[in-house]
Write a structure and sequence with these properties.
This protein is α/β, with parallel strands linked by helices and 616 residues long. It is 63% helix and 10% strand. It contains 21 helices and ten strands. A six-stranded mixed sheet has the order 6-7-8-3-9-10, with helices on both faces. A four-stranded antiparallel sheet has the order 2-1-4-5, with helices on one face. A hairpin with a 2-residue loop joins strand 9 and strand 10. It is elongated, with a radius of gyration of 37 Å.
Length: 616
């Protein structure tokens, strides 16, 4: 409950106070109309005002001065006017409740999504995607239901309190008997309320598992079809669904069970109250009729209150889950990402990069070990190495996505601090191994990171990425839809869209992380030719497993086990032996021939230690 109260304080504290005040006014008006039935029925049945009626008359002396002594007609008109006002305030109350609910769910999703976007990249490495999807979609909706039940509980409880107070004015003994009935009903329902909370926690955990597994299945549907493993996927899916079935059934059945218990027990005890009130308390007929009317109005509110408590117990774990995720994301936030004016002024100017003795580890595992290298401005630098050598971690460090253990990164001779990291990232074009494709048009995906590119800039980026022929063949051109996650595109087409996005506008650094791996040989040559033409305009860093794409690089760095073990141009590394020679030999499947036709020696390579020994 504390989490929900904190959400209320954060999103709409004043409006909640207004809602409580309006609910109180609505309940008071309804209670007053019921209270006025007492003197109204007394005048109608006995022709006289009861004690409560005289008390009411003394409180509305100014009204009596206008219309005289209370009569059946005047009281009837007063009750009618109060009832009209009551339903007017109730409509306003319902509108305000709807406004609060809409504000809550939109604010909750915006704040959670914002917290996730501002979190460090490493935060996402250690969290399940199912938890993120579940929190942003299902759990925020369930949090909305929690607030709805809370608002409903407050309204019902306020009305019940007002009814009880009015009943106490008419008959204290009768009211105490009604309170006794409510206490008995509450004790009976307590165990179901506790059970609902445990069911809510179970559903939150199962929903996370369900969301993650559903996302995995849908994103890998081609694999299941191609391997004929639909049955295995269906069995796993059925297992999760079956595990969710009973908690789901209980979460919807338990509130109805509580309502049924309340209504059954209340009716039985009310029959006892009738006998008790007439034969023992000797209540007047008018008083009995009013108390019966109060009971009839009170019973649904009592049932709603207990049903709301039960439902609230089921939905509160969702509020806790959303707040917990937002808190963890906030603790992992990238703080003080500055927008350095000097960095902004250098947009369009190739960046020079220097890495000094950089070390990075994930837990106890060292990934980069004292890496030092220089990336010249305007040049094409390629980083190669076997899988797990640390290439992607090095790129992540250049982008400031991960925290380094030691060492320094300098851009144009200046340390890359957090005060300039925001502007630095905006000056980088990035194309990773997995191309980001959103459900929209080709143009939407190409211009994603740019506010207002010109049509000439877009056309130039499309040409450089080798997309112009493909787009020209489409009836709608670059307005053609991509489909969800680019389902209407081939792997090569998706990568070319990513390349066009990375090359758009005035970037200082272009990072290509296996960016041509899904292209056919002809398209790859065309794209690489376009990339090489960018020399001098932009600094290019390319990671690749396919060493043939590195032949035209100005400088090649070879990483092995988190260290730079070789560097140089293509010809030097191929002929010198060592780690690069071994990688090339493995890819080609035979020994590498030098210009003289012989097999290159295993010595003479330019290694980081300056020796001629193989660094492999």
């Amino acid at each position: 409950m504390d989490d929900l109260i904190q959400d209320i304080r954060e999103y709409f504290p004043r409006r909640m106070v207004v809602l409580v005040a309006v609910s109180t006014v609505t309940g008071t008006l309804e209670g007053l109309s019921l209270f006025l039935l007492y003197p109204f029925l007394s005048l109608l049945i006995d022709g006289r005002l009861p004690e409560g009626g005289r008390l009411l008359a003394s409180l509305v002396g100014s009204w009596r001065g206008v219309v005289g002594e209370p009569t059946v007609t005047s009281l009837g008109l007063l009750i009618l006017g109060i009832t009209v006002l009551q339903y007017g305030t109730r409509i306003f109350q319902n509108w305000l409740s709807a406004l609060l609910l809409g504000t809550y769910v939109s604010g909750l999703r915006k704040s959670l999504f914002s917290a996730l976007l501002l979190a460090r990249w490493f935060f996402f490495v250690g969290i399940r995607s199912g938890e993120l999807v579940n929190a942003l979609t299902l759990e925020t909706s369930r949090s909305l239901y929690a607030l709805q039940m809370f608002v409903q509980l407050i309204s019902s409880a306020l009305n019940a309190a007002i009814f009880i107070a009015i009943a106490a004015v008419i008959s204290l003994a009768g009211t105490l008997s009604l309170l006794g009935m409510a206490l008995v009903i509450g004790v009976i329902c307590l165990r179901y309320i506790r059970r609902g909370n445990s069911v809510g926690h179970a559903l939150t955990s199962l929903n996370e598992l369900f969301s993650g597994w559903t996302s995995d299945i849908l994103s890998n549907m081609k694999f299941f079809k191609a391997t004929g493993s639909e049955g295995i996927a269906l069995d796993r899916y059925d297992g999760i669904i079956e595990e969710m079935r009973l908690p789901f059934v209980w979460s919807y059945f338990s509130p109805q069970l509580v309502r049924s218990i309340v209504e059954f027990v209340a009716v039985m005890m009310f029959l006892c109250f009738l006998v008790f009130g007439i034969q023992i308390l000797h209540l007047e007929m008018a008083a009995m009729l009013v108390i019966i009317g109060i009971f009839v109005r009170l019973l649904p509110r009592l049932a709603v209150s207990l049903e709301s408590v039960q439902s609230l117990a089921v939905y509160l774990p969702s509020v806790m889950a959303v707040r917990s995720l937002r808190r963890r994301a906030g603790e992992a936030a990238e703080r003080e990402l500055g927008s350095d004016p000097a960095e902004n002024a250098r947009r369009g100017t190739p960046a020079s990069i220097e890495v000094r003795d950089l070390s990075v580890s994930y837990g106890e595992r060292a990934v980069l070990r004292g890496v030092s290298l220089e990336i010249p401005a305007g040049g094409l630098t390629t980083i190669v190495g076997a899988s797990g050598a640390g290439k992607t971690t090095l790129i992540d460090s250049l982008l400031g996505l991960i925290e380094v253990d030691s060492g320094e990164i300098r851009i144009d001779g200046q340390p890359l601090g957090r005060e300039r990291l925001g502007a630095w990232r905006r000056s980088v074009g990035y194309q990773g191994q997995d191309t980001m494709i959103l459900d929209g048009s080709l143009r939407d995906n190409i211009v994603w990171a740019e506010a207002s590119p010109t049509e000439e800039q877009i056309a130039e980026a499309i040409r450089k990425a080798g997309l112009d022929g493909f787009i020209a063949s489409l009836p709608e051109g670059h307005a053609s839809p991509t489909g969800e996650r680019g389902c209407k595109l081939s792997g090569g087409q998706r990568q070319r869209i990513g390349l066009a996005r990375a090359m758009l506008s005035h970037k200082r650094l272009l990072i290509l992380d296996e960016a041509t791996s899904a292209l056919d040989a002809a398209t790859e040559r065309e794209v690489m030719d376009n990339i090489r033409r960018l020399r001098g305009e932009i600094t290019i860093v390319m990671i690749t497993h396919r060493l043939a794409t590195a032949q035209q690089a100005d400088l090649i760095y070879v990483l092995e086990d988190g260290r730079v073990v070789q560097r140089g141009r293509w010809e030097e590394l191929v002929e010198s032996g060592g780690a690069f020679h071994e990688l090339w030999r493995q890819q080609m499947g035979f020994g590498v021939q030098t210009e003289s036709g012989g097999v290159p020696p295993e010595s003479g390579a330019r290694h980081e230690d300056g020796s001629g020994r193989s660094a492999a």
